[in-house]
Amino acid sequence: MSKYVVTGGSGFIGSNLVRDLLSEGDEVVVVDSMHTGSKSNLEGLDVPVFQMRADEFYEKEKPEWADVDGIFHLGKPSASPIYRADRGKVVEAVAGSVAVFEMAREAGAKVVAASTSSVYNGVPPPQAEDAAVAPTDFYTEPRLFEERLAAVYHSYYGVRWAEMRFFSVYGPREEGKKNLANLVTQALWCALSGKTFEIYGDGKQRRDFVYVGDVVRALELAMSSGSNGVYNVGTGTSRSLNEMVDLLEKVTGLELSVRYVPNPVKNYVAVTQASTEKAKKEIGFEAQVALEEGIRRIYDYYSKLMEAGWRPEVRWSIAFEPVSGVDPLARGPSGRGRATYGKAVTGLPSRQLPVSWSLC
C-alpha cells in the first residue's frame, strides 16, 4: 500500500483518480479549494479532505504529507476562461506548483502533475512532446512554468516527476465543472436536456478526445514508472466537432440541435492530436477507450443522474440577432440539419461572452 496526496481530488479527473487509488488499497489525502470541485464527487468514500489550496496545505498540514510516496498535482484552475477573468489565478497556480515540489523534496516523493495539450497551439499534428512550444494565454503559462520547475527540482534535488499533457478529457463526474465541462459532455447534456449546442465557427476544428479512465491509468503508470519527463495523454486520433456530434447522435439515438456562432476567442486552438509514441515507450500508456465507447459510458452515467433528479447546467448562450440573408433553418456546415446561424450582438461586456472550450 502506498500513500498519496491528490490535489484537486474532488474535481473531475481527481475524483476519478481517488476512487481508483482507493480501490487498489492505497491511502489517499485529498486537497481541494473546491473552485470547480465538488464534495459530491467523493460521496461514500472514506478519505480525508482538506479544503484549501496546495500552498496552504504545504504550510499548515505537514503531518499529512511528510510520509507520502507520491503527489498527484491536479489542483490548478482548470480552464482558460478562469484565468482571463482573474489573472491572479496565474500567481495562485505558480504558488501551488512551488509548494507541491517543496513537499516532494522534503518527503522524497514523486510528483505527477497535470499539464495541457493547449501548449501545442499552432504546432502541426500529431503533436509530440519535443515540439517547440510557447505560452499563448494565461492558462498555458503556469503549466509551462511548472514543467520547467519540475526539471529544475530534479536537477537540484533529485525530485522525480512527470508532467502530463492532457488532451480533451471527458467522462463521468464533470457535473461540478458546469459550463466548463468538456465539449463531448456539454453536447450530451444539451441533447439530454433538449438545449441547443453552440459550436464556434464551422465545426471543423478537431480535438483528440480521451476518456477519463484512460487518463487515470496514465497518471498511475507515470507514478509507478522510473522515468521522468513530459508525456502526452491522448488517443492519437482527432475528430472534428461535427463528427463528434454526429457520433453522439448515432450512439445515443438522441437528436441534438446545433447552432454555429462566430468565434470570439483569441488564440483559438484549431487542432489537437497527440503523438503517443513517447508515453507508450517510457511509461507504457496507450489509450484503450474509443470515443464511441466513451460516449456510451457517459450517456449511461448522466442518464441515471437525470433519472435521479439532477439537471445539467449547460453552457450559456450569447445574445443573437438574425444574420441578414441566412436562412436560420439552413443545413449546417457539415451538411447537418437542424443547424442555425446567428451573429453576436455587439456591445456586450466581455464577461457575457461564452467562455472558450477550445482549450479543454
Q: What's the topology here?
A:
Layout: E1 3-7, H1 12-23, E2 27-31, E3 49-50, H2 54-60, H3 62-65, E4 70-73, H4 80-85, H5 88-107, E5 110-116, H6 140-157, E6 161-166, E7 168-170, H7 183-193, E8 196-200, E9 206-207, E10 209-211, H8 212-224, E11 229-233, E12 239-240, H9 241-252, E13 257-261, H10 277-282, H11 291-307, E14 320-321, E15 339-341, E16 343-344
Parallel strand pairs: 1-2, 1-4, 2-3, 4-5, 5-6, 6-11, 7-10, 8-13, 13-15
Antiparallel strand pairs: 9-12, 14-16
Helix pairs in contact: 1-8, 2-5, 5-6, 7-9, 7-11, 9-11
Give a description of the structure.
- α5 runs parallel beside α6 (140-157).
- α6 (140-157) links the parallel β5 (110-116) and β6.
- The protein is an alpha/beta fold and 360 residues long.
- It has two domains: 3-172 and 210-233 and 273-287, 3-Layer(aba) Sandwich (Rossmann fold); 176-205 and 238-272 and 295-352, UDP-galactose 4-epimerase, domain 1 (Alpha-Beta Complex), CATH 3.90.25.
- Helices cover 35% and strands 17% of the residues.
- It has a seven-stranded parallel β-sheet, with helices on both faces. It has a three-stranded parallel β-sheet with strand order 8-13-15. It has a two-stranded parallel ribbon with strand order 7-10.
- It has eleven helices and 16 strands.
**How many structural domains does the protein architecture include?**
2
Q: Can you count the beta strands?
A: 16
Stated plainly, the CATH topology of the largest domain is called Rossmann fold
Low-confidence sequence ranges: 316-360
The coarse overall form would be globular
Q: Which sheet architecture does the biggest sheet show?
A: 7 strands, parallel
Rg on CA atoms, Å: 20 Å
Share of helix among residues? 25-40%
Strand order of the largest sheet: 3-2-1-4-5-6-11
End-to-end Cα distance, whole Å, is 33 Å
Under the CATH scheme, which architecture of the largest domain would be assigned?
3-Layer(aba) Sandwich
CATH fourth-tier homologous superfamily of the largest domain: NAD(P)-binding Rossmann-like Domain
User: What is the averaged pLDDT score?
Assistant: 88
Strand content: 15-25%
CATH class of the largest domain: Alpha Beta
Structural class: alpha/beta
**What is the count of helical runs?**
11
Order of helices and strands: EHEEHHEHHEHEEHEEEHEEHEHHEEE
